[in-house]
Amino acid sequence: MIDKLIPYGRQNITEEDINAVIAALQSDYLTQGPKIIEFEKAFANYVGSNYAVAVSNGTAALHLCTLALDVKEGDKVITTPITFAASANCVRYCGGEVIFSDIDPETYLLDIHKVEKLLKDSPEGAYSGIIPVDFAGRAVDLEAYRKLADEYGLWIIEDACHAPGGYFRDSNDEYQNCGNSKFADLAIFSFHPVKHIACGEGGMITTNDESLYKKLLELRTHGITKNNLDFTNSRNFANGSDSEENVYPAWYMEMQTLGFNYRLTDFQAALGLSQLDRADEGLLKRKEIASIYNKAFSNKSFVKGQSGMVDGHAYHLYIIEVDDRLGLYNYLRGNNIFAQIHYIPCHLMPYYKQFGWKEGDMPNAEAYYKGCISLPMFPTLTFEEQNFVIEKINEFYKK
Where do the structural domains in the chain lie, given as residue ranges? Predict the structure, then answer.
């Protein structure tokens, strides 16, 4: 019997992490300092993108992406109903319309064939973009989505919050890292405590587009620029006089668009850098845990579907579909195992139902929701704890 609580996810904070944060707290900068740029460069290198922009959380990352892509009222954007609500909400923040499309029941990812049908059956120019999600850590085939998006003139935001370290193989059998922005215009990550890299809160946007990168930097900080090459007011106005020294003084800045304060702090960036140093180690442990679950639940009659060992899967979540999900969920909680459900289909949230979405619209997503349960999955999960989880699941179904 294990008495302590076993959550579905948990951060792993080491002495190295603590020392990194202490050093940042003792430095000259708590925010807008050098650790931000250092973290951005290291993260861009990790995923293989040209640029990275650190922000306050994954939701802020999504919002800035839709702002940078000029999403506006009347724009229609396609996404999956099986995701955290922020993947859809970012479109609404800009006044756009969210169009949900169903999942592939085998992968749980946005079904590209259904998206293609949706586009074919709609008038030309009906849609602006697509937000595919690397759900649970399984990588979306973005090469295929890029081809489809180009055919219909759409942008792509990859929601890779579940998949740092994940990848898919392209048509040339080459590895394409989640978030490398080779096929997506922008990609986003989250540094929430249960994610692969934890900053407490935090997020990152990656891109290979320099113009989008510059927009993101401006939007992240109130729409303000300090780059004198972008200034529009005169130098005389800027220095406050008609002196012959016609220069922009060091204090001068301009707010040129309506932005937000979506900055990450330096001590969060320091924690992120420390966590990034052992990201590969954590990913390997997640794969080991998934392999043990796979062996334990293969050929079990009560398991209708499971993640399985998939090439390039980052295993943020380990999900099985079961009979009597509610009974199992309550039984596990009674044994201090706090499994979780990912996710309630977004289109059936009361907010989105007001736009006409209803039960039956997404049959695959709705069927998945009735049986899905996320089992404990985090690098510090011990062999003993995992065996206890497996034992209790088997025990419930024997009864």
Answer: 6-223+257-278, 224-255, 280-398
Angstrom distance (rounded) from CA 356 to CA 347: 9
Cis peptide before 368 (omega within 30 of 0): no
Query: C-alpha distances in angstroms, 110 versus 135, 195, 284?
Result: 9, 21, 26
Q: How far apart, in whole angstroms, are the C-alpha atoms of residue 60 and residue 263?
A: 9
- Nearest of 50, 65, 199 to residue 132 by alpha carbon: 65
Q: What is the pLDDT of residues 233-268, one digit of tens each?
A: 999 899 888 766 678 999 999 999 999 999 999 999
Same fold, 6-223+257-278 and 280-398: no
* The model scores a pTM over 0.90: yes
> CA separation (Å) from 214 to 48, 51, 70, 108, 208?
19, 10, 14, 34, 11
The answer on pLDDT for 374 being more than 70 is yes
What stretches of 155-262 adopt beta strand conformation (E)?
A: 155-159, 167-169, 175-177, 186-190, 203-207, 224-225, 254-255
Is the backbone of residue 240 left (phi > 0), alpha (psi -120 to 50) or beta?
left
pLDDT in tens, 383-393: 999 999 999 99
Q: Which fold has domain 6-223+257-278?
A: Aspartate Aminotransferase; domain 2 (3.40.640)
* Nearest partner of 274 among 39, 48, 45, judged by Cα: 39
Contact call for residues 257 and 90 (beta carbons, < 8 A): no
- Cα 345 from chain centre: 17
Return the exposure string of 49-71: e unless at least 16 CB atoms fall within 10 Å of the residue's CB, then b.
bebbbbbbbbbbbbbbbbbbbeb
Q: Does domain 280-398 have CATH number 3.90.1150.10?
A: yes
Question: Any idea what DSSP says for residue 230?
Answer: G
SS (H, E, C) 40-59: HHHHHHHHCCCEEEEECCHH
The H or E element that residue 370 is part of is helix 363-371
